[in-house]
Amino acid sequence: MFSEKLQKAFNDQINAELYSEYLYLAMKSFFEEKHLKGIANWFNVQVQEEHAHALGLYDYVHERGGHVELAAIAKPALEGDSTLAVFEQVLKHEELVTSKINALVDVAEGEKDRAAVSFLDWYVKEQVEEESNVRQLLGTLKLIGDDRHALLMLDRELAARTYVAPVIG
14, 51, 122, 169: which is deepest, by most CB within 10 A? Predict the structure, then answer.
């Protein structure tokens, strides 16, 4: 049985994933306005990934016979006005999402819901990958510093990133 406590925790995580989608959409817009289409593309892929993450949780709640309750999505706030500052915010945000996923796993473990723990294992592994990818980009941006030519090269590289729908669960 899918407990009320676990159902609420899943609903909270669905909202957190939708907020992530919304935040990355705002960041995509920021870079489109700066004519950095490649970096905007990187965020577009993130938008799609976060949407898929939310839907994965949404589908799981329904699969377990639960009720999805969608909440208001908070307005995203961008911190800083440089590429480096935005990606530092991305890392901070991904670390927050990791803590939320870990808390959700804690609830599933506390409810002794092995199916939910098994399902959430994919999200735990995904967060390791998300944080690693952002850390790598941050390292590159720190090396670039104020070099506009290098930033344009990174922009071109990120333009090639494509979305691949995840197989969740």
Answer: 14
